[in-house]
Design goal:
This protein is mostly beta strands and 253 residues long. Helix content is 2%, strand content 54%.
């Protein structure tokens, strides 16, 4: 999802893929803290058996997207390797105006062998901007993250460390930490959930961490721990804060 959405055993720092994955589809919406709707999206998650086993996350949405100066429509297509662990491979995001005028195209090409990701961005009809970042082998992408995080081991309550690639683009070292149980109500229903905080490691800048917008994710207690809600920055630490929650799920938790 736009966010939508990303683990794991502490000693491996990876998210182990299940032997089989049931297709899932649903819808979500992003609102401000006071309930104003920013955007809505529909998405699905499917497994592919062609060649190496992969999982594909596809999202389409419309509304007031962070970083875009007008109403927009977008699609996100994210492919992750699921053999044996979840690893991002290829991601493309396309944003247009409602009438179809191109506003933004972003792609991320992950090369695990070289430990790099190539990031390409084109705004409107301008030139393609490219950059290459070195990434640790436990790097996760924003796109599809919530679907991947379903398969984390939540029951033992232990934290684990990983890295997350934001849309700036920038790689952040983070820890996913258990914050207890909560009963959560969304338009999709009411659920007993695990609450997880994504805590960034900011080095010398950790002194300002108490003043940053905190990031929380909620997943159902019942396996396979469906994603239910997210609160925090929309696409990176410097982006606006949103409440993103499930509004429809075709696979009932």
């Amino acid at each position: 999802m736009n966010l939508v959405l990303y683990l794991f055993l502490l000693f491996t720092n990876v998210v182990k893929a299940p032997d089989s994955l049931t297709p899932q589809a649903g819808a979500s919406r992003a609102t401000t803290r006071d309930g104003k709707v920013r955007w809505t999206a529909e998405w699905d998650m499917k497994q592919s058996q062609a060649g190496k086993r992969t999982v594909r996350f596809v999202e389409s949405g419309s509304g007031d997207l962070d970083g875009v100066s007008k109403e927009a429509r977008w699609t996100v297509d994210a492919v992750w390797l699921a053999e044996p662990n979840f690893v991002p491979l290829e991601i493309q995001k396309t944003v247009t105006a409602p009438e179809g005028t191109p506003l933004l195209v972003e792609t991320k090409h992950f090369d695990q062998a070289s430990g790099t990701v190539r990031f390409e961005r084109r705004k409107g009809k301008g030139r393609i901007e490219t950059s290459t970042l070195e990434i640790p082998n436990d790097t996760l992408a924003i796109e599809g993250l919530a679907g991947v995080l379903r398969f984390a081991s939540f029951d033992d309550h232990r934290p684990f460390e990983a890295h997350v690639l934001s849309n700036e683009p920038r790689v952040y070292s983070v820890t996913f930490e258990w914050r207890g149980l909560e009963h959560v109500k969304t338009p999709a229903g009411e659920f007993d959930c695990y609450k997880i905080e994504m805590v960034p490691h900011l080095g010398m800048m950790n002194v300002i961490r108490p003043f940053l917008t905190k990031t929380f994710l909620w997943f159902t207690v019942s396996p396979p721990h469906y994603w239910i809600r997210f609160t925090g920055p929309e696409s990176g630490p410097d982006s606006r804060a949103v409440v993103l929650e499930l509004t429809r799920n075709t696979s009932s938790p």
